[in-house]
From TrEMBL:
One of its GO terms (biological process) is proteolysis. Keywords: Carboxypeptidase, Hydrolase, Protease, Serine protease. The gene is ldcA. One of its GO terms (molecular function) is muramoyltetrapeptide carboxypeptidase activity. Residues 169-284 form the LD-carboxypeptidase C-terminal domain. It comes from Dryocola boscaweniae. Belongs to the peptidase S66 family. SUPFAM superfamilies: Class I glutamine amidotransferase-like (SSF52317), LD-carboxypeptidase A C-terminal domain-like (SSF141986). Its EC number is 3.4.17.13. This is Muramoyltetrapeptide carboxypeptidase. Gene3D superfamilies: Class I glutamine amidotransferase-like, LD-carboxypeptidase A C-terminal domain-like. The active site is at 106 (nucleophile), 200 (charge relay system), 270 (charge relay system). The keyword tRNA-binding does not apply. Residues 4-126 form the LD-carboxypeptidase N-terminal domain.
Amino acid sequence: MSLIRLIAPSGYCVNQAAAARGIKRLQEAGYQIENQQAVARRFQRFAGTDEERLAEIQQLASLSPECDIVLAVRGGYGATRLLEKIDFPRLGHALRARTPVICGHSDFTAIQLALLAQCGAITFSGPMLAGNFGAEEFDDYTWQHFWQAITQSRFSLSWQNTAPACSVSGTIWGGNLAMLVSLIGSPWLPAIDGGILVVEDINEHPFRVERMLLQLHHAGILRRQKALILGSFNGATVSDYDAGYDFNEMRAMLSERLSIPVLSGLPFGHEPQTVTLPLGAFGELKHNGYESVLSISGHNVIR
């Protein structure tokens, strides 16, 4: 029986019932779930002390051969506290020899981008144990797209959106926007030229999203990309004060200001329905004005 190893490098899992449902679903899919004690572990608001959570990341260098998938329990906050002490040379050596599917999103983006920057390791921005696999009504779209991404060496995603036609290719990277921006100027942000940057976030008003994207622009990061794809940005409410300023207006402003295509509408992020993206893989993006197709290859898969 194949193994899924749980890791909890960020916040304490408040919804223990959801985590239990997620474990049950994955067991029913034929997996043995390892390191379940990480779910209940707690120190203050975190899923354990910094030392405990760091140890879980370091242990990725010595996984058993049966371990196919490493799955984050949840996001929250805490991953960036670990970055300075992670032994990236040791991890890189191990992950080049054998790379399991490492999957998560939200706060976990910090570790994923650091692994890409320091080790060249491709990880998957996708569902997590509690919030996705443990949802009361699990989404078939999320389930199918997760297994598609981790078992098919080449796959495509398509979605509707209105933007000028374009055709570009490059490295797919990104994840949670706030976490990505927090790494600017650090050794843990990958230096990607000619990439396809895909970002998402939750509970951020459009002006905050705009501010973070402009920070990427002012830092020279966006101008080095081939395209920017905006995933899900849910959980924020505009008010009368905004006077018509909303996400679509923000996107239109960015499209006028940036010299690269800005696409939106990809179901990716803090939503029940989300695709899974291998960060560091190769992407070919074709958009005809109303439909986008992103073909992805070059990532590690399970057999």
